[in-house]
Write a structure and sequence with these properties.
Helices cover about 5% and strands about 45% of the residues. The chain has about 325 residues and is mainly beta. About 35% of the residues are buried.
Length: about 325
């Protein structure tokens, strides 16, 4: 099977993907309740060691997956939220955006959306998943650094993500993954234009019931960002006709684009869901750091949301915990 994911806020986006813990679910299909149980992986390997060596070796061992749980075949709801972040990475201007939070869950054969994001499953093994990864950015208008330059359109990024499951605890409370999405980016307009490629490998740790708080989920994600010349050109190049005394002409190049770290938490209650995240972004060492459009080398972003469940299916299907 193939698993795909919407990454909200991977680079310039609104809300972080996997750690955002969004309450939407798609997975397993109308026939999910009739399918045979998934095969159990071989018993985990034994590690007899101490200290840091034990911790290192433990990440190389595979644990038995938790038993499936039952969820509605479909479910939907609606909520509100807000996010605060810079106009684009490196901008000195920031805004707070109110956001509607639609909640849709469908446990189908191909699509799944849960607290790890929206995913389309093409290939899924105990240790490896091939995911469809999606990211989006907001439009940029009236930014001080870009005064007199064309506005930036919203962008949509889409592509595969190879996800490696490095560690799973027996009770599924701890999940540690390496996620490697490669996405093509397009402008969102009447005639979309491709503006380049992004590659954002990152480590992701999910913790259920952190510190004994039942029902809560804690997510931590961190990793570098890379993009090609066309992508950086869209955000950071200053063409000669737009150069000023304070904004010299600049041609962006491809390569390293900085690092992001995200922490999020969420909880699903019987009739509603709440979640929040905080993100730290650093551009230290980025290939476009000398662009006059880069005014800040690091910044924080945050967001929160609440969504109420409106209706759910009476049909229950088995999904992995």
């Amino acid at each position: 099977m193939f698993v795909g994911t919407i990454d909200w806020g991977d680079s310039h986006g609104v809300v972080p993907r996997s750690t955002s813990k969004r309450p939407i679910h798609y997975a397993r299909g109308d026939l999910a309740s009739q399918r045979t149980p998934r095969k159990i992986a071989p018993p985990r390997c034994r590690v007899i060691a101490r200290g840091r060596v034990a911790a290192l070796l433990a990440t190389l061992c595979w644990t038995t997956p938790a038993l499936p749980k039952e969820e509605p075949l479909w479910e939907y709801g609606l909520g509100v939220g807000a996010v605060a972040f810079e106009d684009y990475r490196g901008s000195n201007s920031s805004h707070v955006y109110p956001l509607p939070i639609p909640t849709l869950s469908y446990n189908g054969t191909f699509l799944k959306s849960d607290r790890d994001g929206v995913r389309g499953t093409l290939f899924n093994q105990d240790r490896v998943e091939l995911n469809l990864s999606v990211n989006a950015t907001t439009p940029v208008r009236n930014d001080r650094e870009r005064d007199g330059m064309p506005d930036l359109k919203s962008t949509l990024e889409l592509g595969p993500s190879l996800d490696l499951h490095l560690f799973r605890s027996e009770d599924a409370r701890f999940k540690f993954d390496l996620r490697m999405p490669l996405r093509a980016a397009f402008t969102v307009e009447a005639s979309p234009k491709m503006i380049g490629w992004t590659f954002t490998p990152r480590f992701n740790l999910d913790v259920a019931d952190p510190l004994g708080f039942g029902g809560w989920h804690l997510g931590m994600l961190a990793g570098p960002l890379f993009a090609d010349r066309r992508y950086h050109d869209y955000f950071y190049t200053v063409a000669p006709q737009y150069a000023t005394a304070d904004r010299p002409a600049y041609q962006a190049v491809g390569g390293y684009a900085g690092t992001q770290s995200i922490i999020s938490t969420s909880k699903r209650f019987p009739h509603f869901w709440v979640g929040a995240f905080i993100r730290y972004d650093t551009l230290a060492g980025a290939a476009f750091l000398d662009s006059p459009l880069v005014q800040r080398k690091s910044y924080w972003a945050a967001g929160f949301g609440i969504s109420w469940m409106i209706q759910r299916s009476s049909t229950m299907v088995e999904v992995p915990d």
